[in-house]
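Running this now, will post back.
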Amino acid sequence: MRYYPINLDINNRDCLVVGGGQVGTRKVIGLLKCGAMVSVVSPNATERIIQLKAQKKILWHKRSYQSSDMQNRFLVIGATDNELLNHQIHNDAQNQKVLCNIADRPEICNFILPAVVQQGDLVITVSTNGKSPAFAKRLRKELQQTYGKEYERFLELMGVIRKKLLNEAHEPEAHKPLFEALIDGDLVTAIKNNDIKTIDRLLNNVLGEGFTYDDLMLER
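Update: finished.
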């Protein structure tokens, strides 16, 4: 396995996207969703990038890339169809020890971007190590059908329960069989069906009296 799989915290990190086309726009939006501070360098840009600049959500430098653009960056994404420029971005990133991804050029990346399925705090990533992005995309679509919005609410509920149990000074290890019982009791299906009676019955059976779905969700 070539790549070490991690989930990277880029919140408030200074990230650079070189290229203002459709690919660059998708990369910008993905970075913004994760809380990054995004700068774009490109002579031209899509309407979406222009809009984001007008909203002061990104910086856009309307010019060609310069090596000095790499200074003090945490991460850079190259989204151009200029091979010489892509290699320059890669080399500059190497020199500055900046994480670098060049779109569709895994051979000059030190990280690649997986296909992502997200339902709230549930994040599932699919990677083919750059061998077949199309297949990764298909798997992502299949997983989206399997893991729907109910998993977002399920994790919200489990998070509240975990916090509540910790506040009652339970040992974390003691929680494991409780959470396993909730999962094995098909809590997800009850949430998907919005079957509050079944949810409350399961909560009471596993956790005891005083745990109801509506009350717990108010504590989010």
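The chain has two domains: 14-113, 150-218. More later if anyone needs it.
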